[in-house]
Amino acid sequence: MTSGVREERRLVTCMFVDVVGSTELTMTFGAERLKHELGKAFAEISRTIALHGGTVEKYVGDAIYALFGAPIAHEDDSLRALRAAEAVRDWCAAGAAGHPFAIRIGVETGEAVIDLEAAEHTKQQMSVGPVVNTAARLQQRADPGEILVGPAVRSATEGSVELEPLPDAQLKGIGTMQVWRLVRVGGAARPSLPFVGRDAELGLLGHAFERARKGRSVLAVVSGPPGQGKTRLVQEFIAQHQDVHLIPTRCRPADETGVFAPVREILGVTTLDRLAEQVGRMCADDIECERVVAGLAESAGIGSSGSLASLPAAEREDEIVQAWRRYLAMLGADRLVVLAIDDIHWADESLVRLVDRITLGGPRVLVIATARPEFATAAGIRPSGDRFFIELEGLEPDEARHLAEIAGRGDDLVVARAEGNPLFLVELARAQVGRADLPLTLQGALGARLDELPADDRVLLSVAAVAGERFNAGDAAFLAGSDVTTTARSLARLVDLHFLDEAKHGLRFHHGLIRETAYGRLLTAERMRAHARFARGRVHPEDAETLAYHWWAALRPPDAEWVWSDDPSLGDMRREAFRANLAAARNHAEHAAMERAVELGERALALATDDPDRAAAHRAIAAAYRSVLRMDEAWDHLKRAAALFRSGPVPAEVYVELGEALGWFGAFKTRPAEGEALAVFESGTAAARGDPTTLARVLLARARYAIAMSQPARAQYLDEAVDAAEAARDPSLMRGALLLKANFVMGQGRLDEAAPLLEEVRRSPGHVDGLERLGLLMVSATYHYTVGDMRAHAADVEELLTVAEPMGPHNRTHAWQNATEMYLARGSWAEIVDVAQRTAKLIVEERSSAFCLMASLVLQAGAAAHALAGRRDDALSLLRLIDETTDRDKAHRKAMPRALIGLDPAIDPEDQWEWYEELDKAVAAVALRRPDDALAAADRMAAGAQTSPPYLAFIDSVREVVAELRGGPPATYDALRKVGYVGWIDLLRHRAQPADS
């Protein structure tokens, strides 16, 4: 295979040496002698540069331009350049051979385009790049006898040279830059971290393993800089524990593989059918199987459950976490599951949160993750006794030498220069034997190793890197323009040399940095054209995520403007790229991967060529923000989408999305004006005429908004929504409309209307999944509690607890709240305390979950139970946790328990509250012996629309207690006993002892 590539992007070090004083010496020496002296000086300077591995590209007047890093890269080109500069400076300062000149030098490292043909032969015009100009500007700024270096050289040589910082310099055409003066090469050695043997780290992993084996969920994070041996340590540990269910995966940057790739690799499937089949083999309960599959599919981006998609982000995440916990428990039924995640610092935030929550109170599992040092702090992993953070430092000298000898070269220079970094040791030991100087950075080591390869092999690595970290021989042959057989032989040779590793279904780069180094050597135009060819020739048309990656790499602005300026196919490519990025954005939005979805949507927007495409991109971005309830941003992008339909009507679907966004009115920081909202519904209703399903969605959204905003026409809108859902013949829409109406009429006190609505929902045809079942049971339980049918309420609660048990924390607290109402009616205070403590534990352990009004009501009841038993501190502890919920009426929730322990309720007794909050207010007033406030609360309850037996019993009992407090006969509480609400009798009998707040 012949490469045909004669230009590369390289990391090089540029050095300009200016001979100072030649103009003045012309008058003293004359032109002929001056030319002779300059020739001698240039020859000596050039010889010194070559001695240190540099190449003189050209002479510019009285200056010499030299390059280190081309045509052959060395591990320490920046240091070589400074050694050469120091030697030239010392030679001039000594005045050897009687020369009359001084010099000034500028040195900087950076990326340049290298003409390999020129570098090997003519040595002229072989480099182009900003670093060349920077080095030249540094030389111009230097004083005679001075060597100035830029920040990249300083970083690459830190610890090996002594530099003096100078004030920031303003360089013409470049801007402000930090500058240092070279004092000498060989400054104070960089302090090294203490070497720590790997036996200790293996021991810590062994301790983690034993805790997991005994039933704990354990996370061990092995962190360290690139090349420190994190992956190798984990591999060695796992090799010592064969009797486990090992699941390995490796994370890569999201724009290369998409955020779902690691999750799919863990599952080992890429389709919903295969996932369902896999789970079905382990799970006998169909309902449980369905929940697990739905949650796993959602997290892997291979399927979307309608019930999950309708949930707010926090609740959806709860369901996903619970699905993973059940799945891992199934896998670990007979042996310990060990999940090995390499490079978790590249993982999407959703995967990191999933790992955090799975391993905090989850099933028996050991997760071992490798990460960069900054991960442990940035990721927000919560500490516990089952969390192990193992930071790797350099190997001990004996261990380092042994590793280097195994790799091929264990001499003192390799061991000393590598400072114990295992990858440095290995790469140095594999480098050409006999090199005196050693790399200072991993990039230098890998660049030097690449240059030891034949040109064709080096080019093959670079073009294969276009495919990604993983590829096969067909991919590489396609990109290289060669036949598969020849390419496969070359790839096998690269595997033997440890540039590549064999992997399932192909090959992978031995280390991500090898891929990055090889990929970075391709010229921009060459790389972009290769991505376009690969997208069209090697990627499956339905693989939107991979297509989006390659098309964006091929067409990203601003380089696309000049790379494709004369290509007639640019328009077709942009359309393909737009469709791929839009599809990938929508997929990520459906699975609440908001940040990646927004990024892909913004890319689609940049690639769009007309207003309808731009509108589609804005809608995808809006869907991404809506998935995490960032409604201000979602609303903004939906409005932009609507505005782009200038030449025609706005599609009805856009109005549906605007209307459904308005339904989450509590998620807006700045809520749209009511007039604007009404205009959306009016236009949406008109646009949806003729499409029954779309019209029903618009009208249902309008009804939700009207009820939330207490609009006068809300009842009419609700009836119209029910009628529209019926006309659409969509069972799911119909159930949603009927449940909305049932809630509404119950709030209006029309309990007789709620029962048939609930019965109609129960008879509704079509599949009802677990979450929809949960919603129905919650409304049913509320109905039965309100009418005082405690037997039916208990049946609802029992089923609710069963349905919610395998679900996430948020939904479990919904069921627990209904159970708490039942326990309160019965006066089962021990059960109330138990549920409250479980809720408090969930809130503490699952801080990434959102806990709403339901959780605060459980905590309120628990605090009341503690207050009745005189446990003041326990009650206050639960009240403080109410602040951790999203309940907007936290003061209301705290009022009654505060009064029960003798504290002021911290509320205005004259404020008008909901009826159940007025009851809390009445109990608080009774506990504090304030009959007037209690009677006022009872009167406000009586003025309401509620007429159910429990409601009336509450009013009668409060009035009895008021009479008792005013000197009348003791209250009998017969009304409450009759309806079975005996727990409330305990609350109304309690009298608090005054306490300081």
The low-confidence runs, each spanning 5 or more residues with pLDDT under 50, are 1-5, 189-196, 432-440
How many beta strands in the DSSP annotation? Answer: 16
* Overall radius of gyration: 36 Å
Outline the biggest β-sheet.
Answer: 8 strands, mixed
**Cα distance, first to last residue?**
84 Å
Q: Structural class, from secondary structure content? A: alpha/beta
User: Beta-strand level of the residues, as a percent range?
Assistant: 5-15%
Approximate shape: elongated
The helix content, as a percent range, equals: 55-70%
- Number of alpha- plus pi-helical segments: 49
What oligomerization state is this entry in? single chain
Q: What is the count of structural domains?
A: 5
Instruction: Give the averaged pLDDT, no decimals.
Output: 86
